User: Fold DUF2237 domain-containing protein from viral metagenome.
Amino acid sequence: MQSQLNVYGNILEKCSMNPLTGWYRTGYCQTDDDDYGTHVVCGRVSNEFLKFTKSRGNDLTKILKEGDFWCLCALRWLEAYKYDNRIAPRIKLESTNIKVLEYISLEVLEKYKI
Assistant:
């Protein structure tokens, strides 16, 4: 797979190998046209976020625990941010795909930078 870029225009860095994340399960938040969820945000999940996403029909608690990094759907992250900005996960921007900028501004993302 061709290298993809992070939000700063540099080569995308690894998000997580344990648990193994990413659309391709490579550890990177890489994407393609078949990734309808646009799993491009490398976020550190909290219990509050896990409860929120479960309430929206996506129970991640069977595979994730608080503190894990995961390639999150851009629109799910944005939904959490708009619902209550305190539950939107903190983000590894160097591991977050530039594709996210089609949905969320860098200014907003940088407020959640780890």
